Amino acid sequence: MKELDDIPCFWIGRRLRWSGIVVTDMKEKYGTWRVYCHFGPTCFHELTHNGHSYIRYTGIFKWLYYRTYTAQTVVFGLLGHVLYPLQRKWYRHVYKKAIEKFPEERQALLHGADYRLLLIGL
After folding, report:
1. Count of structural domains within the chain
2. Range of the domain at 107
3. How far apart, in whole angstroms, are the C-alpha atoms of residue 85 and residue 49?
4. What's the DSSP call for residue 23?
5. What are the pLDDT digits (tens) for 14-49?
6. What pTM, to 2 d.p., does this model score?
7. Beta bridge partners of 23
């Protein structure tokens, strides 16, 4: 029986979550391995409480999270300047390691990637 880490899309999806990238779906489609995800500060909850589907903040953090949309825009906008570059580097690193682990699946991995521009040169 195969382990989940023997399937490329699950291997990638699990590791992308470590940096707060929200992974919405993982599957094989049309002969490619697809991992649907998105970056950004709105993924901050995934970074601090990985795997939890509901808000787990308390105290000041809960207050900040539930503030008005304007306050969230300012806080998450500042946070985005730090998170975007880190998440992009992590995305590229994970795909690079996946290609090393599954060399026979290289084309399927690169063709099914959400953000192909970040993978140029792999």
Report:
1. 1
2. 4-119
3. 20
4. E
5. 888 777 777 878 888 888 888 888 887 666 666 666
6. 0.74
7. 37
